[in-house]
Write a structure and sequence with these properties.
- It contains 9 helices and no strands.
- The protein is mainly alpha-helical and 230 residues long.
- The protein has one domain.
Length: 230
């Protein structure tokens, strides 16, 4: 139970600090894994190598094939699916012997995609900052630091979905209706907007659907772990 509260604290802290500099390395990393999902599924549906270029370079995030509704629907959902699956995979592998290779492997993935598809100098600098942190953790060689890094990375992928759906969709819509914060002029996430366009359901409905999926998925993994020590 103690470990479950630890994960909830990490998750809440990430969501609260999501747009602050301190969370930037994890925000960029989670965005990379989100876009990897779009690109991989788009490749499977026949977009070839261009899928990665389009998914990482385009601000729209998802590639939508207008020739097929089902293809479009699957591709648009694939980013959130990827975020949740990678989050659960990282938190699961943390409890296996693979744990000792994970921080280094994640850092390599981060650097490769940041260099290959850097959207800005800031994103590249952020990835380098993350690399410096992980190198220091590996040099220190403390299991507790290694575990904490994996916990934060794993929960940041879930935080990506929760922030997109809860803050940038549900709360944004409520704020628009109630005019609580007039300076809040964000646009809903492109994936949620596209899902609403494809299905005719309001963006709040899709926000609630994906928020529920993210919360239930992470909860199941944490409960299954039973608070066991790593």
């Amino acid at each position: 139970m103690k470990n479950i509260w630890k994960y909830l604290l990490i998750l809440a802290s990430l969501v609260i600090l999501w747009n602050q500099t301190v969370a930037s390395p994890f925000k960029v990393l989670s965005s990379i894994f989100h876009k990897i999902g779009h690109a991989l599924v788009s490749t499977i549906f026949g977009f070839g190598g261009t899928a990665f270029n389009i998914a990482f370079v385009n601000n729209g995030d998802a590639i939508v094939d207008t020739r097929s509704w089902i293809t479009s629907f699957v591709i648009v959902n694939s980013g959130y699916i990827s975020s949740i699956l990678f989050s659960m995979l990282i938190l699961y592998l943390k409890r296996t012997p693979a744990k000792k290779y994970m921080v280094g492997s994640i850092t390599i993935i981060y650097l490769v995609f940041s260099i290959a598809f850097a959207s800005s100098t800031g994103a590249l600098v952020t990835s380098l900052a993350f690399s410096v942190i992980t190198i220091l953790i590996l040099m220190i060689g403390k299991d507790t630091l290694n575990d904490l890094m994996l916990d934060v990375v794993g929960m940041s992928l879930a935080a990506y979905v929760i922030y997109d759906t809860f803050v940038d969709t549900i709360l944004l819509k409520l704020n628009g209706q109630l005019s609580i914060m007039k300076s809040w002029s964000n646009q809903p996430p492109s994936d949620i907007v596209k899902l609403a366009d494809l299905t005719g359901f309001p963006i709040v409905v899709w926000g609630l659907i994906w928020l529920a999926i993210a919360v239930v998925s992470v909860n199941m993994l944490l409960i299954k772990s039973g608070g066991k020590k790593k």
